[in-house]
Specification:
By secondary structure, the chain is α/β, with parallel strands linked by helices. Helix 7 crosses helix 10. Keywords: Carboxypeptidase, Glycoprotein, Hydrolase, Protease, Signal.
Length: about 475
């Protein structure tokens, strides 16, 4: 079926397609970077760009900005069973630019990590101020301080579901409208990556509560055997860079199989000796994949291309620690032993809950294949073994049933603007083409345009395609919200 766009909308989309040249385009909001990767230069650079100017030209971190004190809401542990009581869910509100007479409300959805607070330094904040909105930010259950139970209480993890997370959003919206806004207003729900999927699903499930959704790089299609992830990486990487990445992983495989070389290699990376071969392969591959998805493809390639083979491990290890921090190469998120052993529970905060969500519902298991990038030890059998070791024999994701319930790559929703980026491998788990005139997809088409780039603060150096993407978002929201 074909859909007819308005003349203005069509011009916006054609304008996006017309610009596709390289430039200083990297844009990244710190909230979309997973907790395990928040200790390196990528996160610090994103955080610096999200700083706000204070008095005398001094920069102020987001937690120092006025009106950013955390609040707590008594949320149900299970929306299907009121007898289980409530937990304290953390939220924030920014009224600084709100026109109480005519301004809309924006609910920023947070995903698989500690919520950083309000979106002061990003495009959501900029947009909210431009339309004189009141902006709310809600932390996802089982992350940060919003804990229904300790992570070590495995029996309570069953309440960490997409369905409960969606019901959290609706319940909080009703609370905020009654207690804070105190009248009926237009509501926009927005998020990026997994939170972008939640935004689209919330609009589909609760159209009477949320008037429009902005789904940035929303991964709405749960995928069990996600070979397409690396397939997309191969499309956007220069062939010489892809060959260099394969050389690193091939060299890793041989070194791990030799006990003497293994010890030396693991010392170079700073990886604990309880990491299995698939664990370490998963970590090394994810480090490269994130560099590409977050707009650091050129940094990855320049660090390892044309490097002597004997120097590859050292250069690759240095790059991983530079981009993601010293802790990355020993992150519990990648280790089957760490995830399954309560004695390591102090390390669980950087990925345990997300590992559970993938094991129980979403998968998104990025797997190797012949001719692909990552080692073939990273496969569905490995992930299933890790899930059972960490969470018990009964925990495995039924992605077919999940997608049947929530729509997969074709959510049954309207008034959703979906944004994608050319270099982002997660594009393959999202909506890639417009589903209707009320579910457009706007793709930033440029070398280096990455995951959730539209959520970052605007910058004069941003690629024209990214600038046009943001204009398109504003255009559609104006049509749907009347603001």
């Amino acid at each position: 079926m074909k859909y007819c766009l308005g003349a203005h909308a069509l011009m916006v989309v054609l304008g996006l397609l017309a610009v596709a040249f390289s430039g200083p385009v990297t844009a990244l909001h710190p909230s979309v970077i997973p907790s395990r990767a928040r200790h390196g230069e990528v996160y610090r650079a994103a955080l610096r760009r999200s700083l706000k100017e204070g008095s005398g030209g001094q920069e102020k971190l987001r937690h120092d900005v006025h009106n950013n004190a955390a609040r707590y809401y008594n949320q149900r542990v299970d929306h299907a069973d009121v007898t289980l009581g409530t937990f304290r869910q953390r939220w924030w509100v920014d009224r600084s630019s709100w026109d109480a007479n005519s301004g809309p409300a924006i609910l920023l959805v947070n995903g698989e990590g500690t919520a950083p607070g309000l979106p002061d330094g990003g495009f959501v904040g900029e947009y909210g101020k431009s339309v004189k909105a009141i902006i709310f930010s809600l932390e996802h259950r089982y992350y940060g301080e919003s804990m229904p139970a300790p992570l070590t209480n495995r029996s309570m993890l069953k309440y960490l579901t997409v369905e409960n997370a969606l019901a959290d959003l609706q319940a909080f919206k009703k609370y905020a409208e009654k207690k804070v806004v105190k009248k009926k207003v237009k509501w926009l729900i927005v998020g990026g990556s997994y939170a972008g999927a939640l935004s689209a699903w919330a609009r589909a499930k609760y159209p009477g509560d949320f008037d429009a959704a902005w789904s940035s790089s929303g991964v709405v299609n749960a995928i069990f055997d996600y070979e397409a992830f690396d397939g997309h990486l191969l499309k956007v990487l220069p062939s010489s860079c892809a060959a260099a990445v394969r050389t690193v992983f091939g060299k890793f495989s041989k070194a791990y199989d030799n006990p003497n070389r293994r010890a030396k290699m693991m010392k170079t990376f700073g990886t604990p000796n309880y990491f299995t071969k698939p664990d370490m392969a998963w970590m090394l591959a994810d480090g490269a994949a994130m560099a590409i998805q977050y707009g650091y493809k050129d940094k990855l390639c320049s660090s390892i291309e044309f490097t002597e083979e004997r120097e590859l491990f050292r250069r690759y290890a240095e790059l991983m620690k530079l981009l993601w921090g010293e802790e990355f190469t020993r992150s519990c998120y990648y280790s089957t032993e760490c995830l399954s052993n309560p004695s390591y529970s102090e390390s669980w905060k950087e990925g345990y809950a997300w590992a559970y969500q993938c094991c129980s519902q979403l998968a998104y298991w990025q797997t190797g294949f012949p001719g692909g990038l990552r080692p073939r030890e990273v496969n569905t059998s490995y992930f299933m073994y890790q899930c059972r070791a960490a969470f018990g024999e009964a925990i495995l994701p039924d992605t077919y049933a999940f997608n049947k319930k929530h729509g997969g790559a074709h959510p049954d929703a309207t008034r959703v603007v979906a944004t994608q980026a050319l270099d982002d491998p997660w594009l393959t788990a999202g909506v890639k083409k417009a589903l209707s005139e009320d579910y457009p997809v706007i793709t930033a088409q440029c070398n280096g345009c990455g995951h959730c780039g539209d959520l970052a603060a605007t910058n004069p150096l941003n690629h024209p395609s990214l600038k046009a993407q943001r204009r398109a978002v504003k255009f559609y929201l104006k049509q749907w919200l009347g603001i």
